[in-house]
Amino acid sequence: MNLSENARAACPYYKKITDREIQCEGCVQRARLVFVFRTKADAISHKREYCDTLRWSLCPYAQMLNEKYSGGWTHDFKRVEG
């Protein structure tokens, strides 16, 4: 993985890429979500197709977070009683 692969992406939820993983803002506070791809090439391909472009909003996870911030979620993920 070269330095340019870890450069800042267009997607506001993207955090970083490492080997087969892309890390994004989590859907709960103080957390990140990690997507583990089958291969390093698959992770890089996804980043180039979505994270690095203005098409980032077509990513299913980005759509979910957009829904969260638009007030469309009905569940408060900040606190879960157990």
Structural descriptors:
82 residues; alpha+beta; three-stranded antiparallel beta sheet; 3 strands; 18% strand; globular
| Total count of helical runs of at least 4 residues | 2
Q: State the end-to-end distance.
A: 41 Å
The neighbouring-strand order within the major sheet is: 1-2-3
In N-to-C order, the SSE pattern is EEEHH
Structural notes for this entry:
The longest helix has 12 residues, at 40-51. Strands 1-2-3 form a three-stranded antiparallel sheet. The chain has one domain (3-69). 27% of the residues lie in helices and 18% in strands. β1 and β2 form a beta hairpin. The chain has 82 residues and is an alpha+beta fold.
What is the gist of this entry?
The protein is of the alpha+beta class and 82 residues long.
SSE inventory with pairings:
Layout: E1 14-18, E2 21-25, E3 32-36, H1 40-51, H2 60-69
Antiparallel strand pairs: 1-2, 2-3
